[in-house]
Every structure is written in C-alpha cells, then in structure tokens.
Amino acid sequence: MTNLIVTISDYTNYGNRLQNYALTQFLSDGYGKTTTARFQSNLPTFKHRLVRSGKKTAKRLRANIVRGQKLLDLQRTRKCVAFTKRYIPDDRFTLTDYKGLTAKQGATYNRVVLGSDQIWNYNWITKRDLGLALGSFAPAGCPVISYAASFGVSSIDDDAQAIFKRYLPKLKAISVREFRGAELVKEMTGLDATVVLDPTLMLTADDWKAITEGFVPKDDKYVLTYFLGHPSDEQEKNIQEYAKKHGCKIRRILDMRDPQTYLAGPQDFVELFSKTEYVFTDSYHACCFSMLFHKQFTVFNRANMTGKSSMNSRMETLFRLFDLESVMMDAGLAPTIDYENVDRLLAEHRERSHAWLAEAMHD
C-alpha cells in the first residue's frame, strides 16, 4: 500500500513541515509506503508565490538581497526546502486547482490521508482547493481518511458548508485535531469525527532528537521565545526578567533581533526546544515540543487579547487534553507543569490515536 498525504505545502512554516514529517513517520510504521502531494493553492500568498512564481519571484528576492531580513528569509526557506527533500519528498504528486492531482510517470497510490494542520481552513485556499483538500480528486474505490485535520475556524460560511457537506460523507473515517472541529463535522453532516493527537505528539522525544544536527552549542544556556504575534511590553519584561534571574541569554525564533536563531531550519527548531531552559510562546506547536521535551513554559495571550476566552480552538483542545489550562497567561509566569501527569495523559491519548488509525486503515 502507498499512502498519499495531502496537507498544506508551506516551506516557510516550522509547524507545517514538522507535522508533515511526523505524519509520514507515523504512517510508515506499519501502514505501507508514504508520500506527500505538493499542494499548490491558487491564492496569491507569499508561501506559494515562492514556489509558483519562478523567475519573477527570484528576481524580486535578488533585488531585495541587501535587505537583511529578505536574505535571512531566503536562507531559512532553503533550509526548509532541503528538509522537505530529505525527509518528506513531495515531488511525485502535485495538487492544483486547475489540474487537480498530477503524478510523475509511474507514481501510484492506494489510499489518501488528509491532514494534519489547517488543511480545511477555506480562508487560505480557493473553494476548488477546499474540495481537493477533502479528497475530491480520489478515484472511486480509493479509501480517503483524515488524520488530525483542522478547520482553523470556529464557524463555516454557507458556500464552504456546501463543499464540506458534499465531500465529508465520502470519507472512510474522519479524525480532527480540535473539539470544535468535531462539532463542526457533526453540525454540517451529522457524522461523528474523532479527536486525535497532532502527529508531532505521536513521536517520542528521542524520535525527534534523532533528526537534530548540532545547531545549538553544547554550552548554550538560554530562554527560548517563539511568537506568531507580538508580546506586549509587560510580557517582554517578564521574559527579560526571567532570563536575567536564571543567568540565561534569550534566543528568539523568527525574530530579527536574533539573526543566528532566525536561520534555524525545522530540525534546528526541534533542537532549540530540546535544549532550552524555559519557553515563552503563543504557538501551538511550540507547546507540543515543550511538552515532549518536558520544558516549563508560559503561553502568553497575544497583545490586546486577555483571559482564557482568547484561546483559539487548537490551544483549548491541547490544554483540555493535558490539564494545562493554567499555562495561558496575560502576563507573568505559568505555574510549574506536572510532567508526570502530562506523560500519563500523553500515553493514553497516543494509545487512542493509534487505535483510531489502525481501525481507519483496516481494509
């Protein structure tokens, strides 16, 4: 059997590349060969322009090469592309809204696995792309399942609902990453969807350490930050005070104040979490890797958002699954995490996710 993974193809996003790698490893353990389709959306977003615009994009990047961030972005993207080519090659199948699924000569597949990540977030893709993300291209008789697929939204507009109602019932089995995702499937189709773990959590800490390459010096003592939003002044003060108190420098992922760390590739991202003293973040996958490596961490609400009600669905699900609601803060430090309890729950949720996948993959 050959499993064809359909997920977002974002060569600039750490979480996207690492969940794709993790799902590939997860499926390859007893479920046959696995390959990934290169999913090229028709929306003119930066992550796809880099792949689709060819010489025009390259010319624009060269014109901006003297600008430090553009050069660093290009170098980091090259690392992400190299990681993809080495660990999760996606050059045998391509998905586009104008051609559907195309394959290199001789490339075949027997099963389609949709997920994970926000593959069903229709705000990022065209309506035709959404059909492809739901397996519309699969021939009759080819089983299609979703693993930890995410909507990325809490409500669905009428146009998108029509697409979900058309294709979700055709899936052999449906699993999602968030509780709200399961509710959306039920509301739109009446079908049951199972909440499973993000694939990054299905690999062990040792599994992840195996792909690291010595990006972090042995004597490096640091606090790690990774923010998709921007910390408030008070939150930044908390970070600096913690680092000073514990004799740590601050390493900042995707922050131009730290050019050395800005260049980190996906495997370097993993290593940074494995060796840090503490983590400050607002990122879902940063929480996942902090948990895997038993790191104490604080999740800051993004600026101008306060209270637990500001948590997005994936954070809410993760914290409910692992009794970690207390790590979300407007400012300050989260209480100490009980990793004995986290490990117990992780073992339980892994077992359930494994069981769901085994049944879904059964012919």
Q: What would you note in describing this structure?
A:
This is Polysaccharide pyruvyl transferase family protein. Keywords: Transferase. Pfam families: PS_pyruv_trans (PF04230). Residues 13-302 form the Polysaccharide pyruvyl transferase domain. The chain is an alpha/beta fold. Helix content is 42%, strand content 16%. It contains 14 helices and 13 strands. The chain has helices at residues 14-28, 46-52, 55-63, 68-87, 127-133, 158-167, 179-189, 205-209, 233-245, 259-262, 266-275, 284-292, 313-321, 339-361, and strands at 2-6, 33-40, 93-96, 100-103, 111-114, 144-149, 173-176, 194-195, 222-226, 249-253, 278-281, 297-300, 328-329. It has an 8-stranded mixed sheet, sandwiched between helices. The longest helix has 23 residues, at 339-361. It starts with a strand and ends with a helix.
